[in-house]
Structure to design on (409 residues):
């Protein structure tokens, strides 16, 4: 009879080697899946400094001059700009509407990126600020209820935008600006043209393109001069909880005037769902894969330890004859599985260390502790599966009569 567990494991080194390899592979896979889940949870940050509740938006379009429905203007006073102003005024008469704003690339939950750079002097050094340019009029600021990083109200921000000031945001990580707060109140020039100067207003929270996207660069909110640019987005803030009534009350004539029309009117929640569809699908597929992997791994452990236990039934019976209790035998079996896990742990940690730079290579901003914290979670889960895989066959083996088990020995 093999009395010492370590000596017994040495004598069975071939089977234990393959079990260790299995634990390493399974551990790395589970760690990777859990790290992806943790990364998605970490990246998910609901909007801050903006209120997207009760907002409906649509795309602003203009009828082509070559179209049969195009309406000629009687004078130079009327144009697509006056058409849009009239359309907005008509929408504001709706009893369920609080405010209407327009802009270009102002509405989030789309993956457009209108990058622009600003430059200014900070401590006698030229710094560059790279941001996603979001052009909006003052009413769009009110509609989105933007607020400043230091508590400025949306009305204060709307006044700054109407005065032509630009608003810049914080970010998760930037390769350019160390502290964007130092830009507040300064004059900055656009790109390399030092004559094209703008005034920086206050610091705001960054407007993400999606709730699962880190803000590598900032957000540039600038005023939207209608007579220079024509907006392509229109946002409507309805009274709280009156979205359905608003949609039911809006007729086709309310969304067009002259040669300007609004299409694809929908809630921002619909756009949010579409923007997050890939992430939700990824989470759903990973959850299904993770469940399958965990079940398969547990069944694999169960089969392996069942076979090992069946092979040792005579040995277990002989130990019981010599005074060993069921608890002693069960503890010995569990110890063997946990020792194998301890042997596999350095290899799991080593492979995790080799893969720790992968998020940075993919452009993700993840703290180092996030990936390392998944290692103990993985080891605890493996230990639980090992204990479960050993407990079932060991429990059955303990019920065997030692005399029957030793009959053929």
């Amino acid at each position: 009879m093999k009395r010492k567990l370590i000596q017994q494991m040495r004598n069975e080194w071939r089977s234990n080697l393959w079990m260790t390899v299995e634990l390493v592979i399974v551990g790395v896979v589970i760690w990777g899946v859990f790290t992806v889940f943790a990364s998605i949870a970490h990246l998910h940050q609901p909007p801050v400094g903006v209120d997207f509740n009760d907002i409906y938006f649509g795309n602003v379009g203009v009828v082509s001059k070559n179209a049969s429905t195009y309406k000629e203007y009687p004078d130079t006073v009327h144009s697509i700009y006056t058409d849009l102003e009239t359309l907005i005024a008509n929408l504001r008469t709706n009893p369920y509407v609080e405010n209407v704003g327009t802009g270009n690339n102002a509405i989030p939950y789309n993956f457009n990126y209108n990058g622009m750079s600003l430059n200014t002097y900070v401590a006698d050094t030229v710094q560059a600020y790279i941001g996603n340019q979001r052009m909006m009029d003052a009413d769009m600021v009110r509609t989105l209820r933007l607020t400043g990083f230091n508590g400025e109200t949306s009305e204060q921000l709307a006044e700054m935008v109407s005065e032509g000031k630009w608003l810049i945001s914080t970010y998760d990580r930037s390769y350019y600006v160390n502290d964007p707060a130092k830009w507040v109140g300064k004059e900055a020039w656009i790109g390399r043209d030092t004559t094209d100067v703008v005034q920086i207003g206050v610091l705001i929270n960054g407007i993400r393109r999606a709730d699962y996207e880190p803000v590598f660069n900032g957000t540039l909110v600038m005023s939207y001069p209608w007579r220079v640019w024509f907006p392509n987005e229109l946002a409507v803030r309805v009274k709280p909880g009156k979205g359905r009534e608003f949609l039911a009350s809006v007729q086709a004539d309310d969304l067009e005037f002259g040669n300007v029309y609004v299409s694809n009117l929908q809630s921002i929640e619909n756009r949010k769902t579409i923007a997050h569809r890939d992430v939700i699908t990824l989470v759903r597929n990973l959850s299904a894969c993770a469940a399958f992997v965990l079940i398969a791994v547990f069944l694999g452990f169960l089969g392996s330890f069942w076979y090992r236990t069946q092979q040792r039934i005579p040995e277990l019976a002989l130990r019981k004859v010599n005074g060993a209790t069921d608890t002693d035998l069960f503890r010995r079996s569990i110890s063997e599985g946990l020792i194998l896990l301890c042997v596999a742990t350095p290899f799991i940690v080593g492979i995790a260390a080799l893969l720790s730079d992968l998020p940075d290579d993919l452009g993700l901003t993840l703290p180092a502790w996030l990936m390392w914290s998944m290692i103990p979670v993985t080891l605890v889960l493996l230990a639980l599966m090992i204990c479960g895989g050993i407990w079932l066959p060991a429990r059955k083996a303990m019920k065997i009569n030692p005399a029957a088990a030793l009959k053929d020995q």
Remarks:
- The two ends are 12 Å apart (CA to CA).
- Residues 118 and 190 are 5 Å apart (CA to CA).
